[in-house]
């Protein structure tokens, strides 16, 4: 039996998807919000953790490097949890962050349910699964010139956070944040921070 934890920020959607997956004879599905993900993963010790990597809550988690921590909580001492992400092919930023969190499975959010079920079984066997619809998205993700930390800083700036607020969120100094923003502006070829945000949002990085 595959123990599955589904993490999504919409209660209605995660309940519906967990119910659908739970009808499979070899899948035991549970669901929780992003806020409760680490504690639920620690108690359930799932074989597979399915997360929506393309939503505001997951963006906040990814900025702090929490995706890997959720999987670590799920793995514990007696389990080896595989991370499977639901992503949008047109947003390479979340795809890049999921890859850096060492996700084993990648499924397009527009895919039919059977494709997700196939991916869950494959990840449970510790095999990689990449939805063929995400091929171009992976190429775009590989071309993002920003580091994971720079993407996190830029995402917070795009939400309207000030330099002191970004520094507090990421536990860094304001000087370090200014250096990151200067690097982001240079790498994106932007005129200023606002222009860098516009360019990155247009490319689907944040």
Q: What percent of residues adopt helix (DSSP H or I)?
A: 40-55%
Instruction: Tell me, rounded to a whole number, the average pLDDT.
Output: 87
In quaternary terms, these chains amount to single chain
Radius of gyration: 17 Å
Helix/sheet category: alpha/beta
Q: Name the helix and strand elements from N-terminus to C-terminus, one letter apiece.
A: EHEHEHHEHEHEHHHHH
Strand order of the largest sheet: 2-1-3-4-5-6
Total count of helical runs of at least 4 residues? 11
Can you tell me the residue ranges where pLDDT is under 50 for at least 5 consecutive residues? none
Distance between the termini: 37 Å
* Major sheet description: 6 strands, parallel
Overall number of strands: 6
Shape: globular
How much strand? 5-15%
Q: What's the short version?
A:
The protein is an alpha/beta fold and 206 residues long. It has helices at residues 11-22, 37-44, 56-63, 66-75, 92-100, 113-124, 135-142, 148-158, 163-170, 174-188, 193-203, and strands at residues 2-7, 27-32, 48-52, 82-87, 105-108, 129-130. The protein is globular, with a radius of gyration of 17 Å.
Describe the structure.
Strand 4 (82-87), helix 5 (92-100) and strand 5 form a beta-alpha-beta unit. The protein has a six-stranded parallel beta sheet with strand order 2-1-3-4-5-6. 43% of the residues are buried. The protein contains eleven helices and six strands. The model has no long low-confidence stretch (mean pLDDT 87). It is globular and about 55 Å long. It has helices spanning 11-22, 37-44, 56-63, 66-75, 92-100, 113-124, 135-142, 148-158, 163-170, 174-188, 193-203, and strands at residues 2-7, 27-32, 48-52, 82-87, 105-108, 129-130. The protein has 206 residues and is of the alpha/beta class. The N and C termini lie far apart (37 Å).
């Amino acid at each position: 039996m595959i123990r599955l934890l589904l993490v999504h920020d919409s209660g209605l959607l995660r309940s519906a998807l967990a119910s659908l997956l739970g009808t499979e004879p070899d899948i035991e599905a549970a669901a929780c919000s992003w806020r409760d993900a680490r504690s639920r993963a620690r108690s359930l010790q799932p074989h597979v953790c399915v997360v929506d990597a393309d939503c505001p809550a997951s963006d906040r988690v990814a900025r702090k490097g929490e995706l890997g921590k959720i999987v670590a909580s799920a793995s514990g001492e007696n389990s080896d949890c595989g991370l499977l992400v639901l992503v949008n092919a047109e947003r390479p930023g979340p795809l890049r962050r999921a890859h850096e969190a060492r996700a084993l499975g990648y499924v397009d959010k527009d895919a039919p349910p059977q494709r997700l079920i196939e991916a869950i079984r494959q990840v449970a066997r510790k095999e990689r699964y990449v939805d063929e619809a995400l091929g171009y998205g992976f190429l775009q993700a590989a071309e993002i010139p920003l580091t994971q930390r720079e993407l996190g800083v830029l995402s917070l700036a795009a939400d309207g956070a000030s330099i002191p607020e970004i520094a507090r969120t990421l536990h860094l100094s304001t000087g370090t944040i200014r250096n990151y923003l200067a690097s982001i502006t240079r790498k994106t070829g932007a005129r200023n921070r606002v222009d860098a945000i516009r360019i990155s949002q247009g490319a689907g990085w944040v």
